[in-house]
Design brief:
105 residues; mainly alpha; elongated
Length: 105
């Protein structure tokens, strides 16, 4: 499950990065028509794009840090209570087995 989560998270981050790159390319390709309104719109777009990149970077850093913390906490919990962790895993396996066998009938 952890590997699948990591793959999905990486795919989402790559998609967001691509959207930001596309928006920046669109901004660069935008033709300034010389009007004051056009210049204001372009500068507003540039500011929003800069803010979005900064927020994405902060979000990415936050997600990585929270993932590391959760992994460390899980590791500490399992190492400090190995028999309890095995019992919980066995109980979850038993419940899932019962549910799956009930559904296969």
């Amino acid at each position: 499950m952890s590997r699948k989560y990591e793959q999905e998270r990486e795919a989402l981050l790559e998609d967001v990065k691509q959207v930001l790159k596309d928006a920046e390319a669109l901004y660069q390709a935008a033709v300034d028509d010389g009007t004051e309104e056009g210049r204001e719109l372009k500068s507003k777009l540039k500011a929003q794009l800069r803010r979005a990149k900064q927020q994405f970077s902060e979000l990415e850093d936050s997600m990585v840090e929270r993932t590391r913390q959760a992994a460390a906490q899980t590791n500490d919990l399992v190492h400090s209570n190995p028999y309890q962790a095995m019992g919980i895993a066995a109980l979850i396996g038993l419940v899932l087995g019962a549910l799956l066998s009930r559904n296969s009938r």
